[in-house]
Amino acid sequence: MSLDKTGLIFFPAFDWAISPTHPEREERLLYTRDQIFEEGVMDMPQIQEYAPRLATLHDVARAHFCVPRVQSQVTEAHLIAAGSTLQLGDSIISGEIKNGFAVVRPPGHHAMRVVHGNRGFCSINNEAILVEYLRRRHGIKRVAIIDSDAHHGDGTQDIFYHDPDVLFISFHQDGRTIFPGTGFTNELGGPGAYGRTLNIPLPPGSTDDMFMYVVDNLVLPVVKDFKPDIIINSAGQDNHYTDPLGSMRFTARAYADFTRKLKPHLAVLEGGYAIETALPYINLAIILALADIDYSCVMEPDYWPGRFKDSQDMRNTVHRMVEQLLETWEKKDKTDLQKIFGTGEYYQRKKSIYYDTDYIEEEQIEKVKVCPDCPGYILIESRGERGYREPVNIFAISIPIQACLACQSKAYEIYEESKKNQKCDYVYMQDRSTDTCMSFDKKNGQEWTTEG
Amino acid sequence: MYIGIDVGGTRTDAVLLENGLVRAFAEVPSSSDILSSLLEALDKIMKGVPAELIERSVFSTTLITNYIAEKKYDPVGLVLIPGPGLCSTQFSYNSDTFTLSGAIDYRGREIMPLRMEEIENAIIELNARGYKKVAVVGKFSVRNNKHEMEVAEQIKKLFPNWHVEMGHQVAGSLNYPRRVVTTMLTCATRDKYYLFLKSVKEAMTSRGIGGSLFILKADGGTMPLKKATNVPIETIFSGPAASTLGVQALIPPGETAVVVDIGGTTTDLALILGGQPLISTRGVPVYDQLTQVRAMAVKSVPVGGDSVVERVGKEIVVYSERLGVPYSLGGPMPTPTDALRVLGLNMVGDKEKAVEAMDILGQPIGLCASEVANRIVNLVIDVIVHEIEEMFLQWEHEPAYRVWEVLQKRRERPSTVVGVGGGAAGFIVQIAARINCHPVIPPYAPLANAIGAALALPTLQVSLRADTEQGVYTVEEEGFQGKIEKDPFTEEDALVLANDWLKKRAELYGLDNALEKTEVTRRDVFTMVRNWITTGRIYDICVQTPRGIMGQIGARGEF
């Protein structure tokens, strides 16, 4: 094993599906398996294949508030998909490999901090679990996550919205035309992390040219400026011109070019449901690009160069957007934040979240403490309603890993108080500063604690 | 009574087993005339035994492996149809290669047709360069063999006497580069292999020995001699498989053990996990070329009893080369065997000479002979112990593609280290001590290979892939491709079809009685949904007869 290898975990979960006919079914990575096995990719000297492993429940609790508990929201397949990213993360940090690709399912980038159920085919957020693990286990400070899925990576955005050490950039099909309906240019991060979230909603039908324009003119310069310790790519593949859920027109070649330019340490498969016409080619192309192997012969059978062209209108829109976002990025530290976020002790957001897979409606109030010394603790009141069942109310507190002493002790005070508060069913504490997660079941008066 | 014979490069070993015991054995030098060494070995073990009592005989050989190592085979021209994907420049095969356009995809659909003039040009060029053996291999040919068949047909039409080998018939799993190598080696070694089979038949006929004749495969299973001509490559590395099976027969059933075979230049390691030898699933490497041949996982470590030992500065270094016999036997350089001699752990050669060898190394740095000897032995043990640990780690890190496979992963460590081979006696106790195991050197250890061959059982496997949307199915092991007749075709139907094929293969191989117990080792079902409608299913099913040996040596009357 040496520094010039690319690590690969291929976990197609051939015995797991949301349902036998759901897009997230056993068949999803079958043809990708066929292609990469037939090409002999796993035998190449540049490739090191790893066995998947399970993430622990605590690894999940470090990133999420699962209602009522972690084990009620995850299956073993979820823990394996998350655990696979952790395995590659470990191997990258230890220097066994230079980069890696977790070709795993189920995906995770729509899973938010609070998890009442499955939304956008996702239950837990593989990238977020990895980031918290890397910070805790390996002392990684700054992380950039670039989401290239056709759907807005709203889960990842939600989890790191107030985190100044995580840069999150998502380019995707315009939210007015596709799930989850968010990811607009005005979503830029909370007061403590302003400008560390950037969204580029692309017009439906955008082609490789547009893709590369955004990468060259926005993604690469911003990532370079941010100076991350580690770069993660949420490698969704539903921007492909054959995807049945998305309406974009990217090709496998463009994904490889993007990978070659971005040089992510770790790519993690997200969406992508053109399981025959896109996935075998895109996954192969990304693997080869990561491993620095010539990918010029990888091509979809029905593609010819010059097949797709953007309209001038679309191009102008995107160019303007990129220019504006670049300006926001450059001025992010000089912006008058009080003008945008107000002057209160807390900055507050109200969110309505719909869980399309499980038909749950969540109403959430998220408050972040405005603190001059740290990103501040986060307080969440959330109510999940599932038609025929009693709604579930929770109260959750999250202490960031960078928390100051004052915020730490204040957050624990609030936790103890809210255990007596009659309004909710469960109370959670996620203390990333000491790596302790607690949950309190009010009905039984029972408390669980996990520590890393 | 059973006969087991292992024809090696330097030695031919034979055993005669009766009621679970070794009745006779022979070790004779292998001569270039296979027939004469076979006869010599047979005559030794059959002394006083009527030929009619022999029920079956099994042969294993490393001859094909040696031919490949020494490149003693006719050149093979490659005609390849790689299609899009990984650039063909990523691979180079040690042979003239002609690349054709044309492509098949993962579902076996033709996405680019062949071009007749390209095929013809390639054949003309092959002829001009004097090739008479050709391997034709296409990417995804195991999903649809149309292109390979068309090219082969064209060659037959123009040069009916050429020997053409097609990828889909030789190597049925997905892995195009390995398929190319496997097909090429099959094509290259078939004549030599045929000669070996002929010698075996002649030897047995001339001594009037009847009963059934089998050839040992690299995965530890056997196949009837008369069916074996088609797949010479399957016998590659049947030698190590024979030794491992032999050890399996010589230790209690169900044990987890490391088999350490210390030879002159290399040490071969194999694992027996819970009584079953570990198989290398993707295929075995043959001198740096990866093949699709299922074989027992054997790791060759380049250190042995005759390895050269030198002093570099203040360090003693064991090299991987061999420059002749040990110093104590009049060789040119000190070796680990000399070190063992000094420590009294073997009785090879002259003790004075061995001490002299140690002094050559030790005197300039002020070490006495036994200190040097200790260092050398420890160095050798370090290397072997490290490789054993690596082998277990590698097994634990085997990829898993299903949830249940990840959940059943376990950590297992050996309880026994079994030594076979010439150098075993001196090292095995210390290796075992280092990894907390019992050392075992079983009786008949030098004959483990022949015993393993004698006890091997036939194995049969059928991997069926049925695609109901396209109405086709393939049988990997047969290179067969056919139409699904039934509609709807359910998972149960697929299972029945797979078992029918297993039965058909068993009949073909004359192994009907092997089918008493079969097991399903893979049963994947993929529902295909297109435009929100279920359009078909893909079944990926593997059925096989159980692996194993006829019984343990010493378990009297058990087999």
| Total E-strand runs of chain B | 29
Broad structural category of chain A: alpha/beta
Number of domains of chain B: 3
Report the average pLDDT across residues of chain A: 96
Low-confidence stretches of chain A: none
CATH class of the largest domain in chain B: Alpha Beta
Topology:
The complex is a heterodimer of chains A (452) and B (559).
Chain A: E1 6-11, H1 30-38, E2 47-49, H2 57-61, E3 65-66, H3 70-73, H4 76-93, E4 99-104, E5 114-115, H5 126-138, E6 143-147, H6 154-160, E7 166-173, E8 197-202, H7 208-226, E9 230-235, H8 252-262, E10 266-269, H9 279-290, H10 312-331, H11 337-341, E11 346-355, E12 360-369, E13 378-385, E14 392-399, H12 405-420, E15 426-431, E16 436-441, E17 446-451
Parallel strand pairs in A: 1-2, 1-4, 3-5, 4-10, 6-7, 6-9, 7-8, 9-10, 14-15
Antiparallel strand pairs in A: 11-12, 12-13, 13-14, 15-16, 16-17
Helix pairs in contact in A: 1-9, 4-5, 7-8, 7-10, 8-9
Chain B: E1 2-7, E2 11-18, E3 21-29, H1 34-45, E4 56-61, H2 63-69, E5 77-81, E6 97-99, E7 103-104, E8 110-112, H3 116-128, E9 133-138, H4 146-158, E10 163-166, H5 167-170, H6 176-206, E11 212-216, E12 222-224, H7 238-250, E13 257-262, E14 267-273, E15 276-277, E16 279-280, E17 285-286, E18 289-290, E19 295-296, E20 298-301, E21 307-312, E22 315-322, H8 336-342, H9 351-362, H10 369-396, H11 403-407, E23 416-420, H12 424-434, E24 438-440, H13 448-455, E25 461-467, E26 472-475, E27 480-483, H14 491-508, E28 519-530, E29 533-544
Parallel strand pairs in B: 1-4, 4-11, 5-6, 5-9, 9-10, 13-23, 23-24
Antiparallel strand pairs in B: 1-2, 2-3, 7-8, 11-12, 13-14, 14-15, 14-20, 16-19, 17-18, 21-22, 25-26, 25-29, 26-27, 28-29
Helix pairs in contact in B: 1-6, 2-6, 7-13, 8-9, 8-10, 9-10, 10-12
